[in-house]
Amino acid sequence: MNLNADPQELAKFGDLAHRWWDADGEFRPLHQINPLRLDWIDGLARIQGKAVLDVGCGGGILAESMAQRGADVLGIDLSTKPLKVAMLHAMESGVQRLRYREVAAEALAAEQPASFDVVTCMEMLEHVPEPASVVRACATLAKPGGWVFFSTLNRNLKSWLFAIVGAEHVLKLLPKGTHEYQRFIRPAELTGWVREAGLEPVGFKGMEYNPLTQRYWLSADTSVNYLLACRVPG
Question: What distance in Å separates the CA atoms of residue 121 and residue 141, rounded to the nearest whole number?
Fold first, then answer.
């Protein structure tokens, strides 16, 4: 099976791994939006005491916060350096019920189908060659009646202006080259993949940012960043 990963993408995040937990560094936006995501996921799925998988966990910002809320979390990624950073930070934090593995979602799906109450896949689909394959794997990994959450970037003129020109070049919220516009995913495309994978879309949320107040919030506007909640039938 060919690995559904882009070596350049893995290297890009690997090179920045040591900065992952610097709340004022390159990953500052992830730290700022993490509470919003966490509350939204927890509000729908009630993660305490549940088996949760974080696909494309990177340095572990979301995975660790879910474990702190009482979930039993496995974080997976294919970029070695961020995973090591995640493991080290978990040790330093003393957070319990948190494990990490360097494994592809597709490989884990073959190994452990229907094993997780909740599966999260945040800001990852736009970084892999075959995002629909990851969606299928996430659906396979979730138990009947379980929840699957995705977040990604819409593909339109506004998202190009906001997420690439604005965030990477003007405001310098993200390192240049973080995103490639052609890999952005329209909500209709993601909904199609989700339904093909046997998931039921429950609802979208948009994420907005005000550069003057430096504040993020969830809204109904999915034109740039957006999140999608799904259920597994049963």
Answer: 12
| 22 labelled ligand-binding | no
Cα 130 versus chain centre, distance: 15
Task: Say whether 145 counts as a known binding-site residue.
Answer: no
Annotated binding-site residue? 77:
yes
Determine the pLDDT at residue 173.
63
Q: Which of 140, 228, 146 is nearest to 190 (CA)?
A: 228
Q: Which of 11, 108, 13 minimizes the C-alpha distance to 61?
A: 13
Q: In sequence order, what E strands does 1-131 have? A: 51-55, 72-77, 98-102, 116-122
Inter-residue contact 145 to 231 (CB < 8 Å)? yes
Cα dihedral value 89, 12, 184, 115, nearest 10 = -40
Q: Residue 175: what pLDDT? A: 66
CA distance 167 to 12: 17
Is residue 37 a known part of a binding site?
A: yes
Question: Per residue in 31-53, pLDDT tens?
Answer: 999 999 999 999 999 999 999 99
pLDDT digits 0-9 by tens, 163-202: 676 666 566 666 676 767 788 899 999 999 999 999 999 9
